[in-house]
Amino acid sequence: MLILTGKPVSDGIGIGPLALFRRAKVSTEVRPVSDREAELARFREARDSAAGQLQALYARALETVGEEDAAIFEIHQMMLEDDEYTEGVENRIKDGLNAEAAVEQTAQELAAIFRHMDDEYMRGRAADVTDVSRRVEQILCGASPMDASAYDKVILAADDLAAEEIMHLDAKKILGVVLSAGSASSHTAILIRNLGIPAVFGVGESMIGEPEGQMAAVDGGSGKVVLNPDAATLTEMQEKQSRFQKDREELEMVRGQESVTRDGQKIEIYANAGHLADLPGVVDNDAEGIGLFRSEFIYLESDDYPTEEEQFSIYKKVLEAMPDKRVIIRTLDIGADKKADYFKLEPEDNPALGLRAIRICLTRPELFKTQLRALCRASVYGKLAVMFPMIISVEEVRKAKAMLWEARKELLSEGVPVADAIETGIMIETPAAALISGELAKEVDFFSIGTNDLTQYTLAIDRQQTNLDAFFDAHHPAVLRLIEMTVQNAHEAGIWVGICGELGADLSLTATFLRMGVDELSVAAAGVLPLRAKVRSLDMQTSEKK
Ligand code: PEP
Ligand code: MG
Q1: Which of 49, 240, 349, 380 has the lowest tally of Cβ within 10 angstroms?
Q2: CA dihedral 309, 358, 171, 231 (to 10 degrees)
Q3: 339 or 377, which is more confident?
Q4: Active-site residue, selected from the candidate residues 187, 275, 361, 376
């Protein structure tokens, strides 16, 4: 038995066999081939094996997500069988190229053709041809594909995980996550919390050498991980798991209840989400709205810029999942730790202080316009609010809003319906925004305070850094004062203000936020009911001031 201690990142107990996360290493470099016939056979075998994987994925997706969403795997199978694709690869191999390079070059050529087509749907196929080719390349290179089915009911262990790697996992099959490194305020941590998977980060490198398949127990509330537990420890962890589940069941009592203190102060409790897979959790946990939909994860899941059509269909689904409830979709917040290769962003010395979020959108208006059109088109399917991230000036807000209204006007002139009212808001996640929140409040309908970045930028502590924990103080008075100042300025201007950073879920601050007058808290779905229970237990007349 080995006990490891790390940072508690996502509450809950997970018990199951340990599996190490494997990254698919793919090389598509050109290398000499002596036997072209053998190389052709190698390609055909890989293609058939990829088709088999896709068939299995299609069958599984049919059961879990339905026909419409499963169709993508069928489209990928069809691409593999397409003559143009197969001949493109085979002719290159016949000319002397190795299979990996032949697949890559064919994929790039076809993707470029698709990308330049007039038809929106056909442009979307560029990403598919890249995806399907990546699958074949992985098989050719002998790399296990990042296929969710590879991890079934396991405790997943890795050195660290990137946000986009989490996106490729099937959350229902991951019982717990243990990372040897990792920061509790990273997007990886946020995604894992949104998915409700128990997790401990920063347990040290020794874990990576541990044999797979041994029993592991993860206590995401205390930060303890036990490998190969003895009988007594296993029973103890199982009992704790039952207690945790029982506590969750008790929280059912606040389902459907108002989020109101004993002396009548109300607050709205929303949930954060990052992709469609989070929606069942948001609905199940009785969230009163979506306070932050991180749209950048749509971009991170793609191999190319998501089209207007693709984005529209996702935003529409998000709004339809929350009828009559406010859904705040944040525009693209890419950059810093959220990177997609196809953006081809220049390397930066300080990416957290670099070209990210609204800065990218305002410098690449065509990219922003696509998203804004998709959002406007989806607006008729629910109660949409659009929120702009990383704002530092009034000019940025005005420019972003002008582009939103331009997209709206354009659509209306094309005869496409757009909702009459779309609320607009900004994130307050820089000290600059908090300090000029009085001016900013005149421009928008609401603020949402992003305490993750606000803390990072106020304390000058990189949220990705794993070795600054000793200096990190989530309750630092400077951060709390900036929050209070923002709330006061918002209310003076007559707009409402929420918190969508991770601090919103910190139950030791709930009374403080209520006292400041925060109108809404948006937390990971699993945090909604505990937070409502906390609010309902408070009496602001008697609760101690902090
Ligand atoms: C924040 O900064 O608090 C926030 C909610 O945005 P993100 O965590 O995605 O940067
Ligand atoms: Mg942020």
Answers
A1: 349
A2: 180
A3: 377
A4: 187
Phi and psi torsions of 143, nearest 5°? -90, 135
Q: Decide if pLDDT at 541 tops 70.
A: yes
How do 174-179 and 199-201 pair as beta strands?
A: parallel
The answer on pLDDT for 370 being more than 60 is: yes
285-312 pLDDT, tens per residue?
Answer: 999 999 999 999 999 988 889 999 999 9
Mean pLDDT of 414-422: 96
Q: Helices 36-64 and 83-94, interaxial angle, to 10°?
A: 150
Check pLDDT > 90 for residue 107.
Answer: yes
DSSP output for 1-70: -EEEE-EEEE-SEEEEEEEE--PPP--------S-HHHHHHHHHHHHHHHHHHHHHHHHHHHHHT-HHHH
Q: Which amino acid is at 478?
A: A
Domains of the chain: 2-19+148-233 (3.50.30.10), 36-140 (1.10.274.10), 263-537 (3.20.20.60)
What was the pLDDT predicted at 261?
98
Contact status, residue 160 vs residue 188, Cβ threshold 8 Å: yes
Residue nearest to atom 1 of ligand 1 (CA): 450
Q: What is the mean pLDDT of residues 455-473?
A: 90
Amino acid making up residue 60: R
pLDDT of residue 412: 98
User: Taking CA 177 as the corner, what is the angle to CA 173 and CA 183, rounded to the nearest 5 degrees?
Assistant: 140
Q: At what angle do helices 120-140 and 67-81 cross, to 10 degrees?
A: 70
> Which of the residues 76, 275, 376, 500 is marked catalytic?
500
Q: Is the CB of 452 under 6 A from ligand 1?
A: yes
Q: Which helix (H) or strand (E) holds 199?
A: strand 199-201
- Output the pLDDT for position 42: 95
- CB-based contact 287:505 (threshold 8 Å): no
Active site residue 376: no
In ligand 1, which atom is closest to the CA atom of 185?
A: 8
Q: Which residue has the tokens 């859904």?
A: 327
pLDDT tens column, 122-156:
777 777 788 789 889 988 987 654 455 567 789 99
Structure tokens at 282: 């948001």
Please give the full DSSP string across 387-421, using - where no structure is assigned.
EE-S---HHHHHHHHHHHHHHHHHHHHTT----S-
Concerning whether 361 is annotated as a catalytic residue, the answer is no
Checking if the pLDDT of 113 tops 80, the result is yes
The pLDDT value recorded for residue 143 is: 66
Question: If you count DSSP H runs as helices and E runs as strands, how many of each does the chain have, helices first?
Answer: 20, 16
